[in-house]
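Dock flavin mononucleotide; give full complex structure.
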Amino acid sequence: MMKLLGVNGSMSNKSRTLVLVKQVLDVAGEQGASTTLLNLSDYPLPIFAPQADYSENEVVLEVQRLVEEADALIVGTPEYHACMSGATKNFFDFLYRQISGKLFGLVAASGGGNGASAFTNLRATVLCCHGWVMPYNVGATGTDFDKEGQLVNSRVDERLRRMARDLIVYGPLLHQQFQDDLAQPADAPPGFAHWIG
Ligand SMILES: Cc1cc2nc3c(=O)[nH]c(=O)nc-3n(C[C@H](O)[C@H](O)[C@H](O)COP(=O)(O)O)c2cc1C
């Protein structure tokens, strides 16, 4: 069974981003995936400092373990000042090897915009860590939700469902090939897995 991890990078207790991430996880679960939610407000990571020793920090270790165990991820961020949120970026600063070779779906909640600016730097961050990114994103604005915070735009919902399906299908293929590549003998033609292997 493929393992899909959903990450919410909003610290809000009424997070619209969380609604988007949960919907992808729910649909993926209905289609047979094993799903886990990593809501960053429940995992108080310290602000990353390169000189710090996090080897006994339980939150850091748990977050790294959850990402390590995933075959693919759905990452959601609120758009903050035309970027991903600080919490989302700080999450990525604790990770590298756990991301490499895995497929990421990206979703974002924004105010007036469409999340395009947040997607640009979120996508760059995943690629920088040698992760794959789905060739489309799913953004939602304030008017896509009702007063209770429920998603009411069926076109956004349709894209979230598509995202869940594609993560389940393509995620394990890419992850398995990356693991096979890591196990290749040293004299095999080198692929990008050899950079971290
Ligand atoms: C500090 C801050 C910066 C924001 N910057 C933007 C922005 O650049 N563009 C935009 O469309 N919305 C912006 N917003 C609105 C949020 O993206 C919007 O409220 C979103 O729903 C937040 O996601 P959440 O509900 O998951 O916390 C900003 C909100 C805050 C608090």
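Observed: Residues 3-196 form a domain with the Rossmann fold fold (CATH 3.40.50.360).
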